[in-house]
Amino acid sequence: MGTxxxxxxxxxxxxxxxxxxxxxxxxxxxxxxGRDTATMCRWEIGERIPALDQLTYILGVLGVRGxxxxxxxxxxxxxDNTSWLTTDxxxxxAQHDAYIDFEQRAREATIVSPMLVxxxxxxxxxxxxxxxxxxxxxxxRERSRILSGAQPVNLRVFLGAPALNQHIGGTATAHxxxxxxxxxxxxxxxxxxxxxxxxxxxxxxxxxFSVLNAHNxxxxxVTGRQCSVWLHRSEDVERYExxxxxxxxxxxxxxESLALISETARRLR
Length: 269
Hints:
By secondary structure, the protein is α/β, with parallel strands linked by helices. The protein folds into 2 domains: 6-77, lambda repressor-like DNA-binding domains (434 Repressor (Amino-terminal Domain)), CATH 1.10.260.40; 83-267, 2-Layer Sandwich (Endonuclease, Chain A). The chain is built from 11 helices and 7 strands. The chain has a 7-stranded mixed β-sheet with strand order 1-7-6-5-2-3-4, with helices on both faces. A hairpin with a 4-residue loop joins strand 6 (217-223) and strand 7. The longest helix is centred in the last third of the chain and has 17 residues, at 234-250. The chain is elongated, with a radius of gyration of 20 Å. It holds the Pfam family DUF5753. This is Transcriptional regulator with XRE-family HTH domain.
């Protein structure tokens, strides 16, 4: 039941975290519930989803209760839905946590952000300033390891020029953020390109989104102030990939983008 979708990945993460918190090995849990470890492993990595009655039993064994149980069983009820829309604050946070876990396993990622530096590239001071101003704090400790770890993600970022001039947190914080962008843009697996104003309508002015390839699953993740949606149907993801190609045609080159970021940072000294 349920095959390789954002929801199945998120549910597998719930099971895995509950199991490790209970200090059960995979073999321990498999023995208790009477299933083989190979099946249990497929459930935990999101390749499959257990039937609802089996899932409820597993979560009961692991002590999952209340809102966490409601969230997990909700994932199992419609795992193959082509879109996973969340509006409830608790569900949005849980979805974003699952997305970040998925992101850590990505081989390729493209981020489009017309107005703000994407949270993956925030400095701690920028994240603190956004949280203090009432924004969502979504920067996770060690999240940026995907940029420079043993197997760094191949990352493309299309950043709107307004994001360079938001001055979030004041001049010193903004300067540090720009310097960080310059450092990131020089990493061998990162391509950071700025797109400007006055280009007419194009998908880059229509909102933030990301496209990720991980676990042999291509997904698009679209976020707003009050809701977010995670897509995996190939036709839907392809539309966002087409948008990325359209933005790429209008963006500055990586070298021109680095020069613009560096010059903007220099003016803030």
